[in-house]
Amino acid sequence: MFIRLAKQHSQFVQDLVMNLQALAIVLERKGYLASCYTCGDQMTSASFMVSLGDNHLIRFLVSDYGITWTEMRDDRELMKLEGAEAIAQLQELANLLKYQPESTSSYTAAVAQAI
């Protein structure tokens, strides 16, 4: 049972890393500064970052050791989430992008209002 769970967890992390890479590409195409770095070809960890302007930065880290979402403004931490809460916040970011018009300012305004 534990070996099966370990394999499922590894697959989950790999799927999450692939989705972070895709999200970074979409964000870049919409005019945001975004990146997703992975270590090696095994896709067992990633560091995803996006700048929403006005010194507003989101960092999402995923590895076998955990998942964290950190939101910062002016080099101060506004919010830090882990695990399922971090993934839910990432989904909110993806949903906002999905339904946002082509202009990037509306997303930044929506995020600023939420904070």
TrEMBL record:
It comes from the Bacteria. Pfam families: DUF1815. This is DUF1815 family protein. It comes from Floridaenema fluviatile BLCC-F154.
